[in-house]
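Try it yourself: sequence plus magnesium ion, in.
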Amino acid sequence: MNDPVLIVADSLRDRARAALGSRNLILVGLMGAGKSSVGRIVATQLGIPFIDSDAEIERVSRMSISELFAAYGEDEFRALEGRVMKRLLKGGPRLVSTGGGAFINDRTRKHIKRGGVSVWLKADLDVLWERVNKRDTRPLLKTENPRQTLENLMNARYPIYEQADLTVISRDVRKEVMAEEVLRAVIDSRTESAA
Ligand SMILES: Nc1ncnc2c1ncn2[C@@H]1O[C@H](COP(=O)(O)OP(=O)(O)OP(=O)(O)O)[C@@H](O)[C@H]1O
Ligand SMILES: O=C(O)C1=C[C@@H](O)[C@@H](O)[C@H](O)C1
Ligand SMILES: [Mg+2]
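Structure, out:
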């Protein structure tokens, strides 16, 4: 109870929650950046609902992301992703962790920009590769040289992720530390815009 670390964490949470108000908090970034795992922690800390857009797409379609890509192709997947995102961002506050390509699609990006505060979890190639190479659930990385594909995606997408409202560097520290940095970024953005 009297642990100073916990007292600081409480005040951080309260300040971030106040700074967010009724807006949604939306995490964007490449596969493996930590949107889903860090997002879940941030939502718990803020006491707001957590939604992962990939999981929501799988729930409504009753298909896995890989199955959707295989059956309908990427364009149809993006159209569905856009519709799901629009619906998720009506009302708030919610923490929405997006799929890696959501913010890249013009229409979906508009929904996100209108729908709340966007945070780019920015990671370097080694960090991302270390995390994504353990599972083969990501259809875009089913190529001959997935590490190169990931690098190509970084080059193409980083200028677009840059349009997010806030950027937090995702690196090899505990997920709780990353979550704390997201909270601090939300607080700082409010302080800056009020100044
Ligand atoms: N800070 C961290 N330290 C260690 N491992 C992490 C960290 N953040 C995420 N991970 C791990 O990296 C993997 C990918 O993380 P996560 O699924 O959260 O990424 P994502 O951004 O949601 O990716 P996608 O776009 O594919 O959904 C998971 O196994 C997760 O446990
Ligand atoms: O980066 C991407 O384009 C993707 C990332 C995943 O979250 C899924 O949304 C899907 O595999 C596409
Ligand atoms: Mg995810």
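One thing you can check immediately is this: The helical segments are 4-20, 35-46, 53-61, 65-88, 106-115, 125-132, 146-161, 175-194.
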